[in-house]
Structures are given as structure tokens and as C-alpha cells.
Design a protein that fits this description.
Keywords: Flavoprotein, FMN. With 216 residues, the protein is α/β, with parallel strands linked by helices. The protein has one domain (2-186): 3-Layer(aba) Sandwich (Rossmann fold), CATH 3.40.50. 31% of the residues lie in helices and 18% in strands. Helix 1 packs across helix 6 (169-186). The radius of gyration is 16 Å and the shape is globular. The chain binds flavin mononucleotide. Flavin mononucleotide (FMN) binds at residues 9-14, 68-72, 104-107, 110-112, 162.
Amino acid sequence: MKLAVVFHSASGTTRQLAQAVAAGAATEPGADVCMAEIVGSDIVDGRFQNSTLLQQLSGADAIVFGSPTYMGCVSAQFKAFADATSELWAEQDWADKIAAGFTIGANLSGDQLNTIQYLQVLAGQHGMLWTGLDIPGGFSTKLSDPAKHNRLGAQSGLIAHSADGKVHKTDLLTAYYLGQRVARLAAPSATPGKRNGNARVLCKDPVWYAFNRGGL
Ligand SMILES: Cc1cc2nc3c(=O)[nH]c(=O)nc-3n(C[C@H](O)[C@H](O)[C@H](O)COP(=O)(O)O)c2cc1C
């Protein structure tokens, strides 16, 4: 199973989340995970021109989209990438791939949800199958989750917040979990509507990469 994380990041916080998503996805047995970063030189005269990256994504079973929130939506660089997928859209090349998304903003309520919803619409246009987070913020009565994943409580995708350029450990752990979840759902053994194998193991310790498989 191949999973790609495609993202844009100017100052590195979205990149850290992307790395965490990829690391979480890599824990799924048989997962082949790649990071695809959208960079300025991919964009020529306002158009995203990196056809190699697009081909790479077409070969994936699951794609996780990541962008910083800029002015209440994805960054211009991410949007240039999204516009360039229109030829693939015409063929519905990405139909039935699993999709998910994440974003980060400097304000606690900095309109990040609109970014997630844009990513969800993008996935919908491609006929992809969107997956969010199955963690109800701090309100779970069934989960033992001392790390308090999904601290900001968004479930359509991961919303993170950083006021100082540092990424909160819990946001990284939630990104890691999102990667695990997407990889698990994209795995050939996945059964729709059922959790399989080692599903839904939350980290007990909010330390980056201190993944504890004895979770639940
Ligand atoms: C042009 C621009 C627009 C931004 N707009 C928003 C915004 O609408 N809401 C928000 O919460 N943060 C906003 N931010 C802050 C960024 O989302 C935040 O710094 C983020 O961590 C940057 O991600 P990066 O480190 O991956 O580049 C904006 C930053 C820039 C440069």
C-alpha cells in the first residue's frame, strides 16, 4: 500500500506535521510512504509544473494533503498544485483513493476549518474517500488518552496551532495518529466500518515518537 503526504510549508511548521503524518503511516505493515513537498520552483508563471510529483501521487493508494492556513484558506502554492490536478480530475484518476488533510495557523480560531473544508472539497472533486479523526477532542468517555490527542477538537481533519513557530507536541502526536489511521484504512486488509488489527492505539505519553503500542 502506497501513501503520499503532499504539502506546502514556508516556515516549517506544516512540514513537521507532514513528517509526523508520514511517520505514523509508516507504522502500518507493508506501507510505502512518501513525502511530496510543493516548493516555489515547482511554480512557473503562476502554474504548478511538477508533473513528476503528480505522477507520484497518481501511484498512491492514499493521499494526505497539508497546507498552512493563509488568509483563511490554503496557501497560494498549495492552490497552484491543486489547480494543476485538474487534468487528473477530468479522468477521475484519483477516484477511490483515501484522502485526509491537515493545516496549521497562528491564531487559535484563525479560520483553519475553512482550509480543511477546502481540502475535503478538493478530495471530493477527485472522487476520493475522505477520512477525518475519530477522536472527539477531550470528550471521549471510552478512550484512555492521557496525551489528549486532537486538543483543538476538529474532526474533519487535523487542525494545529502555533503562535511562535514551534509545533505543539500534541498536534504532532495527533498528526502521527492521523497518518496511522489513513494507512490502516488504505491497507488491503481493511474492512469498511470495522477496525482491524492493532487499530486505534493512542500514545499514552505526549512525547514525540514515543509511540506506545499498549495504548488502549
Ligand atoms: C500570508 C500569510 C497568511 C496567514 N493567514 C493566516 C490565517 O488566516 N489564519 C491563521 O491562523 N494563521 C495565518 N497565518 C499564519 C500561518 O498559518 C502560520 O504561521 C503557519 O504555522 C505557517 O505554516 P508553515 O510554517 O508551514 O509555513 C498566515 C501566515 C501568512 C504568511
